[in-house]
Amino acid sequence: MSWRCMLRTSWWIGFLMCCAIQLQLAYSALDDSELVIVVLSQPNDYHRKLAEDSTRLLIKEAEALSGMNTKPIIHLSHLDFPHVGDWTIIPLIPILTDLYGSKNHWIIFAEDRTRIKLSKLIQVLNDYNKTEEYVGYSIYDHEPTIIHHYFFNDDNLENFKYPNIAAGFAITTKLLLRLNERLRNSKGKADFSIDPSHELALFIWDEGRGVAMRHDQRFCIENSENCATYPIPFTTCDDPVPNKSIYFAVKTCLKFHGDRVPAIKNTWGKHATLVRFFSDAEDKTIPTIDQRTSNPKDLCLKTTDIIRRAAEEMRELQYVRWLVIVDDDTILSVNRLRELLSCYNHQSVIALGERYGLNVAFSSQGYNYITMGGGLVLSKKLVELLLEPGACTCPEQPQPDDMYLGICLALLGIDITHSSLFHQARPIDYSPDLLKSQPGIVSFHRYMTDVNQIYNEWFKNIDESNQFETIKHLEL
User: Fold this and answer.
1) Helices 92-100 + 173-185 axis angle, to 10
2) Can you give the pLDDT at residue 187?
């Protein structure tokens, strides 16, 4: 071997030894056994697999870095901490305090699609002490928004930051203890859970008496070399489901026959094979399915009637496997939905959409429901189950349809499946960095904006993509 080759070989050996020493120093400062990782998982087959894949990759890296004797502690929330409000994180605080409150640990919360580079995460957390703090990829509202109850903070929304859970975030056990003490001394309240990351940040902030979030760009919303965590983008599980397998039921009324219905027909409606408009008035030019009732404000009766009538048609059209109920101001992509549904089994009992909750964060007596504006997806099997005698009968007093359906599902013991790709509000109501971490968005909601502009920006290209077959409409 020449002296040049020997010199080059020696340089590489020295470089690798230096890397090994740096990694060992990281582990000597913070061992992976001091990490508790809570994956916010769901019992649905698709989401359970995402969580299990994340766990498997974490364990594999831990074994490669430090041998079999030390591993991070990993919990799947739906298995280890089953609670109706586990997705809001707040109900997990007492449980985690009992398990780890006496330890000097970091608690990391992540979604089932969050991927963690263990060695890099350890290096990141070594940059922080273990006082009362939490760190992650922080986002903020650019204007007051309905999904956060138009929250205002000293007229500067940028001052109030909350975590993008898709990127994961970490809190210290010292902060965990403080939060648990607050929970003990508070009576809790019956309230809506809409955005768990914002609501958790409000609880931690405690009107300025608590802790503000620290932003670290190594918690990422898109993968890069320096990332310690990042969300994987949605990818289809199989071929998109056939267009004709989806039955779209649109809730409308006479007031909106002249504007909202044409907006649907000129945007996403022209890409759907099977669309039905259910209204309180007959209009043969649309055409509508007449739903005139004794109480036009009873949304519960109208929605259960939609389910019944749709089921009758679905029995005749054997190839229809999904019922999608939307408002007449829901804006969506038909082809994005077809891609998403490739990950779910229509022969299973599935209720899919954007999950909200009532009285679930501070109590176990509440229930979850799917907010209708972003779209409610029911598998054919669930549609039939809901029509069984006594399964879902509307009360005498008018009830919000999405909330009462949530009660029905809870009584039947059916878990709601949440997808971050459905949205109850307009794009402007969400942090741009939140939407950036959600490639594959299926829907938005709210008519008080330019429907065509939103559809053209977010959905038109995918709906007009040549990879999807030509649409043949099925008329009434």
Assistant:
1) 130
2) 65
